[in-house]
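Example 3.
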Amino acid sequence: MIFLGLASNYRARDIWRHSFAIGSQKDYDSLEQALAKRYGSDLMHTSLIYSGRSAIALALKSFIESGKLAKGDHVAINSFTCHAVLEAIKYAGLEPVFVDLEQAINGEILPNYSAKSLDTLAQKDKKLKCFILQNTFGFPVDIRQFEKVKKDHNLLLLEDLAHCAGRKYPDGREVGTVGEATCLSFGKGKSLDTITGGAVILRDQTISFPKNFNKAQLKSRELAGGLSSRASWYPCFAAIARGLTHLHLEKYWLGLLLKLKWIERSGDTKLLLDTTVTHWQAKLALRQLRSLKNSGLREFFLVDDREAVLKELKKHGARLEEFWYEVPVAPERYYSKVHFPEKSCPNAVFFAGHVVNLPTWYTSKHHQKQVAAARQIIKSHELKGGNHDRV
Ligand SMILES: Cc1ncc(COP(=O)(O)O)c(C=O)c1O
């Protein structure tokens, strides 16, 4: 069987490593140092933090405290994203503005917005001062075009690396080395995955962390209410869930774990600016950072009838229901609260209604064969002018 989600990116030895990892302050410091170096900053402007959304909120608050943004300013974001991004922007006292997904000349809808759309928005929205690029699924944007718009309208760029750490832009620069701030998530299924965690790198040295943020005094998540055991055992719990799918019992197992609060849904990670990752998480994240590759996180395709395709895939042992994303701002349980402007973002609505993903992390021949078979099923339902396995 192949899966999306449920820590299916963890091989047996990763589960073992994750469950029994021990780290030290040295590992924590080494990760901060490695991030500062990789993304062109220094230790004073780099901090690990509780989650990806905490990282984005902290970066935006830093922009505000450094006088680069004012409360109420607008921040452009992808119209196909996670509500975590919205949560972070609102937390910082800013206003998110959705930009619709790009439609290429051949009709294909791409998973990111275009520089042209950002330009159009910046011309009419005088409160727009900042934009976030997330390079969805690790599919990179043409950064040169965005840099031109950035310069023309004097915008700040926050690069959100949740999906795309290690990726290169078409001009060869690494993602995360262009904007004023770079944010990482170490959440489940992300480019760096230690189940939870995040990092901020302020790349513009005229921007500093807020005065009330003291990175030396952050609480470890170990002390934030016993959450640490949950993060370290998640890959093990998820492996059991994957095993139970053969007996159709995984729902009960996951339901029990949720009830016991031993796991949490990915969308429900907290936004905390006074808490950070554990030493062992830092150790694992550093190991992953060192071996990041310039490759996509997930393949994506648009299909005609997604429900039917997922059913067919399930029959053939491919459990791909945890695709990104089922609505323009996921997860679906929060979608109605977002008041997403569907009329002005038709491409995003269409994309979210038809997208399916394929995992890119399976390495064994046996699993790769299963991925190829799933790809074949998907391709037989692929929409004309849809997307191709290009990540
Ligand atoms: C594009 C994107 N950015 C940021 C985040 C936030 O990450 P976290 O869950 O670590 O807060 C997510 C979460 O799913 C995401 O999909």
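Residues 51-53, 81-82, 84-85, 134, 160, 162-163, 185, 187, 198, 266, 269 surround pyridoxal-5'-phosphate (CB under 6 Å). The first strand starts at residue 2 and ends at 3.
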